[in-house]
Write a structure and sequence with these properties.
Blueprint (H helix, E strand, L loop, with lengths): L20 H7 L6 H29 L3 H38 L7 H33 L1 H6 L3
Helix pairs in contact: 1-2, 1-3, 1-4, 2-3, 3-4
GO cellular component, one term: mitochondrion
Protein name: Mitochondrial fission process protein 1
GO biological process, one term: mitochondrial fission
Length: 153
Amino acid sequence: MTEPIERDFWRDTWVRYLGYANEVGESFRALVPGKVVRFSYAVAFAYTFADTADKSYRMLKKDGRPKRVLIETGDALLWQTLASVVIPGFVINRLCAYSLIYMSRYPKVSRKARNWMAVGVGLASIPFIVHPIDSGTTMLMDVTYRRWVKNEL
């Protein structure tokens, strides 16, 4: 009989979407004050740090060797920072910005309507970028950080 696969609470449940709070903030950038966007980044980083702390604590309980704990901590922090904050934040920011630039070609559409359309583009794209960015970040980590630290174990 096969052993049940352990689900990662931080990456395999709805909680993963907390890491995408900054994408919602980026989507609304054209309509809300900068403080709101910065707060959305604070939520995403809080999620990132919570997952990192959880992975570190689990490795501490499992192995206990400081070097392994630090490697696991680095892996979780790098992965989450890239997959939850940096890459998707940049993607959504550019999608919304380019949407606004494109829509500026239509001066008959009010500025408020163009801003709302850019918000819609940003929000609608979030579900489509989550899995490709997660998978791409995993592949990037596999060929860089994880390969480099494998020699250290």
